[in-house]
């Protein structure tokens, strides 16, 4: 359902300091005909307009796939979804661990999408007030 591509970049200095970071870029794709479906990474929009930029928050849950806008935040919701994310890890080991966790989270999302599409109506009941 989803294909992830990982681009490991060379270590770089963070903000011209002595601290190195290991950038990791991940791109999500899907065979779904709508391009919105690949936008599974939730970003927190940089509403302060400072140098930090938008921040990665998580892999979208099933409700977030329909509730959050794709590609751009709205004034009322400072979160949006995208298909491309770059994070900066503190070490090569942390980058590998992050990559593994992303794969697990995307697998969970794929499982939840499949489970939601196989739900069948089991029962319908009408509830009335007990004093009626």
Protein described:
- The chain is of the alpha+beta class.
- The strands form 2 sheets. Strands 1, 2, 3 and 7 form a 4-stranded antiparallel sheet that branches. A 3-stranded antiparallel sheet has the order 5-4-6.
- The longest helix is centred in the C-terminal third of the chain and has 26 residues.
- It is elongated and about 75 Å long.
- The model has no long low-confidence stretch (mean pLDDT 86).
Give me a quick take on this structure.
This protein is of the alpha+beta class and 132 residues long. The chain has helices spanning 62-67, 92-117; strands at residues 2-8, 12-13, 20-30, 41-44, 55-59, 79-82, 84-89. The termini are far apart.
The arrangement of helices and strands along the chain is: EEEEEHEEH
Approximately what portion of the residues adopt beta-strand conformation?
25-35%
Rg, nearest Å: 19 Å
pLDDT averaged over residues:
86
Poorly predicted ranges: none
Give the proportion of residues in helices. 10-25%
Query: What is the overall silhouette?
Result: elongated
């Amino acid at each position: 359902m989803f294909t992830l591509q990982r681009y490991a970049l060379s270590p770089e200095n963070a903000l011209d300091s002595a601290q190195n970071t290991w950038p990791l870029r991940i791109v999500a794709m899907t065979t779904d005909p709508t391009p919105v479906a690949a936008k599974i990474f939730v970003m927190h929009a940089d509403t302060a307009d400072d140098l930090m930029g938008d921040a990665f928050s998580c892999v979208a849950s099933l409700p977030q796939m329909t509730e959050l806008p794709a590609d751009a935040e709205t004034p009322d919701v400072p979160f949006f979804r995208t298909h491309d994310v770059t994070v900066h890890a503190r070490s090569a080991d942390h980058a590998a661990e992050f990559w593994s966790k992303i794969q697990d989270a995307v697998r969970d999302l794929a499982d939840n999408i499949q489970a939601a599409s196989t739900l069948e109506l089991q029962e319908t009941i009408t509830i009335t007030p007990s004093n009626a």
